[in-house]
Structure formats: structure tokens, C-alpha cells
Amino acid sequence: MRRASRGVPVLLLVAAGVLVGCGDDADGGGDAADYPSDDIRLLVPYAAGGPTDLTTRTVGSCLESELDTTVVVENLPGGSGALATTELVGAEPDGHTLSLVTAGTMVLTPLANEVGYTVEDITPIGVMAEVPSVLAVGDNSPYASAEDLVQAVEAEPGSVDVGVPGASTPQGIELQRWADEHGIEVTVVPFDGNAEMTTALLGGNVDAVLINASQDVTANIDAGQFVPLIASSEERLDWLPDVPTFTELGFDGLTLSGSTFGLAGPAGLPDDVVTTLEDTLQSCLEQDEVREGIGEVYVPEEFAGADDLAEILDETQQVYEPILG
Amino acid sequence: MGIADGLGEGFSVALDPTNILYVFIGVLIGTVIGVLPGLGPTATIALLLPLTYELEPVTSVILLAGIYYGSMYGGTITSVLLQLPGEAASVVTTFDGYQMAKQGRAGPALGIAAVGSFIGGTLAVVGLILLAPPLADLAVEFGAQEYVALTAFGILLVTYLGTKHPVKALCMAALGLLLATIGQDLTTGTGRFTFDQVELFDGLDFVAVAMGLFGVGEILYNLEKTEKAEQIKSRIKNIWPSRKDFKDSSGAIARGSVLGFFLGVLPGGGGVISSLASYGMEKRRAKDPSRFGKGAIEGVAGPETANNASSTSAFVPLLTLGIPPNVVLALIYGALLINGVQVGPQLIDTNPEIFWGVIASMFIGNLMLLALNIPLVGIFVQLLRVRGGILAAFALLITMAGVFSVNNDIFDMWVVLAFGVIGWLMKKTGFEPGPLVLAFVLGAILETNFRRAMITSDGQFDTFVTRPLSGTIFALMALVIVYSTVMGIRRQRRGRPPALYSDQLDAAAPHETAPGSEAEGTAGVGATGDRADGGGSPGATGGSTRAEP
């Protein structure tokens, strides 16, 4: 009954929005020492209902109780994340406006479009969740293993159709790099999100998919309808111990197709605010309730803080810039 | 999941007090807007769309579906009593219904329409249950080529079926396709027509476009007209039809159910077409066709049954393929997307509560309508006294607040206003928004699947005709084009407009009141209500269908 909680009449919502807007102007730029001194706006650059939304809401409600302030989670989908991110980078760097960030919203979108911000315009706080990608085939596929598939592609480049969740997605770029850097040329077929790809794979209209292993996909893997052949992570996944990684198969560097859901504020966030948020996030991610909410397998085993998130985003930027820039 | 299990789950969803309340609200709103000539089901659903964001997905579809088939009942009332079709699909009912009312038989006319609608609606639900799950199983196999064929077929039929001006409809469909290209190219990620505006990266928001064209456009258009409150003085007696009435109509109701069901499934089909087709069929089958137009009860029973059946069966392509067959269903598709539900062949598996819950609610809704309509006709008629100006002010306020709430984006409010003005101008000039909106929705599906088919076939066009299913559909399309061209030429030689059914529509005109007979194209697209011309001439309203002198 998640939706019921949003059952505030529309007019009230609008009125409340106006009031909140006034409030921000009145006491913007609060003192870092008594942070948080006001409500926290937590933006999600994607629509309600997906894994990003779920993760942010779970972390948001934990921040709310840990920091003892109201956390308002706000979905601002659109512009491949640019709408929410523009809002974030334009906000006062006082820790009262935060957002979920991904390599997609922070690196891909600014490289592919004129959006007026770059990865330099935010202050990373920490990693909330990491969703790996898997290259999977259907249960009646002729390719029983990664080697089978690679051999087929090498024998006849372009003969294997692989679905990805969108044109400029980490998965799409990863397959392009597979061709450019390792000579493995599959035909990249862009879909719009996981559901379309799932239907296409089940219906036999693509040979394989490179897909975010979110909960809908793990359900299909458990049911045996999807057979994962390769994982995008650096090391094998705990929950898929028999599935090799791209690196293991000799394709070095293909570790960027997973999604990292980071937490960030605008550039220039005071150090003590970052530390407060980093520590709170760390303790949140140790709570069972939060881990179950996000999905146990997606919470990084070892907490990745501000520096780690910055490193992930920078690495992605360096790899993608020559391809897209 | 078997049918029994499915229905079990469906009723457990539909009988939830919240959902019962919403199906009741839906059919009540539907009846009311069916009575009011100003607002049709399309405009109403467009206006209420953002509010469904606050509801569970299944509840929102239950509500919107209730409005849709409820309006099919409501539209009958004013057609019979005042010769004012409350919504486009009821135009046909004015032919014989009003004549029956003049002969003092308004009661049985309304009664048989309610009974026929109930039977047609219920049978169509049964058809939906039997047809949809196997079709969805089949549809999982559909590849990009099949989707290209189906969407192209849909756009073709929309511009051809039930439009008065196929050329104008074609123009609007083309415009819809063009508008659909705004935003990021889904295959390459390049921005198109975005002018580096972040708001345009994802293209125009469908909800905002539809609300503007149908909602605001309709409101503006209605405000232009002088209003005059209507009053019904005659009392309606003996609403329950006699045994002879039932005997006369039983065949028409049975045929109307089947006809309506199949025309509803067809892209571009729906309410208007099915009621017209049923009327034509009954007239052809009658021993004495001259009775038609003079108060033949079959002429009321058949079309009213058919339009209700079609409003239910229209859910088949949406729930199994993810392709909305007409504008109302396109809006319901929008409601599901707003709520984050993926509409496609897997819907029945992944969201069984939506599929079966909506079906179960249709049984309940049809029963409610039967109960509502027969005793309460008199009260609904009084609604005609509500002044349009008051309605319009409220509707506009709800629209603007509503569209903002969907994406929290002020830009969408401008889109609504801009398309509101465009919609108003289109109505004034006789262009229909229906084909535009449907082409806009289908255009995105068509383009991505076309590109996908080109990628997987290495650019070979024959991929569309060598696959058996898409080949068959393309062959059908060729047939429709040839047939319509030949018929169009023949009609023109006889000095008639080249559109399908326009002669039947013209039949309404000799009474010289024929309001709202603009025969809005796709499936009950907004009630066109030339409000309260009662007794006057339909005047110079664009697209009026008066017979040649």
C-alpha cells in the first residue's frame, strides 16, 4: 500500500510545494554544526516504482530516523536524469538537498547531451547499492556457456543479437567496448528498460541480453527462464558462484556495465556534513531492515564511502569520455 | 493461472471496499458525463488521468474503465429523450430512440438500451476472459516485425474507420507521428528536436498532450457556445420493456454483442463504429426496413448493445499486446505507465491482480449500471441544468494541478495549455484530435520496433513480409487500402463523401437537430455535443453532417 501514503489531494500537494519553496529561501545555507537544521529533500532522477526509487526510499526512511529530521523523497524523472541533477547542482550546498546519482546521470548524460553540469558539480557521499549486470540467455538457448557464445560471435561477427536496456546505457557502451577493445562484435539491440528485454528474450526475439540483475531478473534466473552466462562484476558474485566474469574470460576492463546507486549533494558540501552523512549511511546499511529493503545482494559487502564513490565516477568518466566525448 | 483461479483472485480484488467504491464512482461519473453533452469519456478520462497517480494501478484502471463503459449507458438517455447524443457513440440511438420517445415509448427505449448494454457488456467480459490469456501467450513470441505491422495497421485503421475526413485524419496522424519523434532517439541516444532543453529529452509527455487536446480543447470549445439549460417535462413511464419488446430485440442484442466485441478489438474500432455497424446490420436484416428511423426498438437495442460490448473488448489488445486500440484505451495505457506498470504480453503473468481485478470489476460495474439506470433516469436528466461555465472552471483547475503532479514539472503545464489551444483550433476547423493522439502513442512503439527489426535483420526490408504473422497483417493492410480507395471513388461518383458510414450519419440530419453528430473518429472520442441547439439549426459548426439539400 505504498501508494496510499501518497494519497494527499493534489491541490494540497501543490500548496505544500509552494510553502516548502518559501521555507528554503528563508533559511537556506544553514550552519554545518547543527546539521540537519531543516527537512532534507532527497531526489530520485527516475520514476517511482523502480529499483532506484526503492533504494532511495529505504535509505531515506533510515536517514530520517537516524538524523531525526524529515526526509522528503521526491521523484523527478526525465531528461535521462538531467532534471533531478540540475535541481541538485543548483541547490544550496548545505546538505538539505541530496540526490541519488549513478554513472548514467553523472557521466553518460552530461557527455551525450548539453546539460550544463558535469561530475565535478556534486559532492559524493557514499554508495547505497550496487546492482551488477549479467549477460543472460533463454533456457532453450544453443549457447550453454560463455565460451559457446564467444565462439559463435568470433566465427560470425554480428550473428548474435544482444538486448540492452537503452541506447546510452552502461550496458550499451559495454558491448561497444567489447567490440572495440576485444573484437567481439555482437549486434546491439536497444530496448526500453528491463521489462521489454525480458519479453524479447523469453519470446526468442533476441539471443541474449545484458541486463541489470535487479529483483525481477533474479526471479527469472531462479525460475530457470534466464540462464546467466557472464557477470559484469570484478569478482564472481556470491549468489552466482558458477558464473564467470568478463575479466576472468580475458576481457579486461569490462566491469562498468553494472549500476552504482550513489548518494550525493551539490558541489561544495562542507566536510563535516559529508562526514555526518557518510557515517549515517554506513550505519544504515548495516541495519537488517535496510539491507532487506534494498535487497541483501545489492548492498556492498564493504561500505564504500565518499572517496570510493568519487573514484567509481571518475573511472567511468575517464573510460567513457573518449567514446562519447 | 486458470480461469477459475483468475476470477477468484479478480473478485477478491474487485470486492475490496476501496475498489467497489471506485467502480461505483467510475460508472456514476461515466453516466453523468454521458448525459452531459459537453464532456465525453475521452475528455473526462484525460482530465482525471493525473489523479490516478494517487491510486493503486488496479484501482485506477477500474475507475477509468468504469467511466468508459458507464458513459456508453449515459449517452443513451439524452439521445432518446432530447435527440442530443451525450457522447459520440450514441448518435445512432437518436435515429429510432427519439422517435420512440415521441410516440410515448421513451421508457421501453431506455429500458431496452440498459438491458442490451448489460448483456453486451457482460458477454464481452466473458469473451475477454476467454480470448486474452491465450492471445497474451501468443504475443510473447511477437517480435519487432509483428509490432511494426500491428501499430501500422492500427494507425491506418484509425485514419480510415469512423472518420468523416480520411485526409484530415491522415494529416493529424502524420502530425502525431512527427510529435512522437521529439526527444532522445531510443536507438542511438541522440537528441532530436530538443533544442538542448532538458525538458524535451524524453519527448512530450503523453498525458499532457492528451489532456490539452481533449480536456482543455474540449473545455474551450464548449465555452464558445451559448448555453441554455435543458429541461425534460415529460415523465417517463413503464421503463421495463414489454415481453414483445424483448422478443423483437433479442436477436439485435445477440448480434450486437458479437459485432461490438469484434469491432472493439480492432485498432481504430470502438464505440462509434460498432453502433453504426450494428444499426446497419439490423436495418439490412429487418423484414420491413422502412420501420427504421420511425421508432424501431431493434434500432436502439442493437447499437446500444454493440457500443457497450466494444468498450469492454477494447481492453483485449491493450492487456495482451500493450497496444491501445483507441484513444480512450490509450489514456488508460497512460494511467498504467504513470503508475509504473509495464503493459505488454506479460501483464497477465506479472500483474494478475490488474487483469483479473479489472475484469471482475466490469461484472460488478455493469450490474451497478443496470441498477442505476433503470430507476434513476429522471434524476440523471436533471443534470442537464448544470451550467457549462461552472463545470469548465473546475475542470481547468483540476487539469493544471493534476498534470503538474505527474512529473512535478512546470513545463508539462505549458504543454497542456499549448495543446489545449491547438485542440480547440482543430475542433473549430474539423480536424480530429483522436488520430493525432493515437499516432503519437503508437508512433513511439512503431519507430523503436522498426529500428529494432532493421538492426536484427541487417537492414533487410523483406523481414516484414517473410515472417508469417507480420506478412499476413501487411497483406490485410494492402487489402484495406485497395478496398477503401475503390469504395471512396465509387462513393465520390455517386456524389457522396468518401468516408465510411458517412451516409448513415447523414441519416440523422433530416430532423434538423442532429447535434453532436460530428461522428468523432476513434471510439467515442469526446462527446462533440453542440450543446443545446435543441430545436434550432445545427448552424455552421464545423464538420456537421447535414444531408445534402
UniProtKB/TrEMBL annotation, chain A:
UniProt superkingdom: Bacteria
UniProt cross-references to Gene3D superfamilies, sorted A to Z: Bordetella uptake gene, domain 1, Periplasmic binding protein-like II
Entry keyword set: Receptor
Family from the record: Belongs to the UPF0065 (bug) family.
Name under which the protein is recorded: Tripartite-type tricarboxylate transporter, receptor component TctC
From TrEMBL, chain B:
Region ranges (Disordered): 504-549
Record keywords, A-Z: Membrane, Transmembrane, Transmembrane helix
Positions of transmembrane segments: 20-39, 109-132, 144-162, 169-186, 327-348, 354-374, 386-404, 410-426, 433-450, 470-489
Domain DUF112: 20-438
Name this polypeptide is given: Putative tricarboxylic transport membrane protein
Biological source species: Blastococcus aggregatus
